[in-house]
Amino acid sequence: MINAKLMRNDGILIVEPVDKLEKKDFKQVALLVNPYLEKHAVLNGILIDAESFPGWENFAGLVSHLRFINQYEKKVKRIAAVTDIGILSILPKIVKHFVSAEVRHFSYKERELALSWLQTDGAG
């Protein structure tokens, strides 16, 4: 399960995995994002708020996650991975080879800094 919130004024999607990710989770996030993208060219950012990462319920959940990334990767300017989980903290180094968005890791205590970074226009 994913909790998702769209900060419409900022064009920022906040996602928080709270239970094993399922195929339907990505459909629900798409229902939140698609109406915004019909009116705007891109999302300014995605904040992945991952105090923990429960994994995927099954292979269909993983495949849906990968399809979601593929479908939206060119429509996102920046991704902030907010986590202290070791494997997820190296996410930016891995993901930069697959997405056009600028990706950065922030420790969990830097969540507000991550949000501020997503809200800025320039690099920095």
UniProtKB/TrEMBL annotation:
Gene3D superfamilies: SpoIIaa-like domains. It comes from the Bacteria. InterPro entries: SpoIIAA-like (IPR021866), SpoIIAA-like_sf (IPR038396), STAS_dom_sf (IPR036513). SUPFAM superfamilies: SpoIIaa-like. This is STAS/SEC14 domain-containing protein.
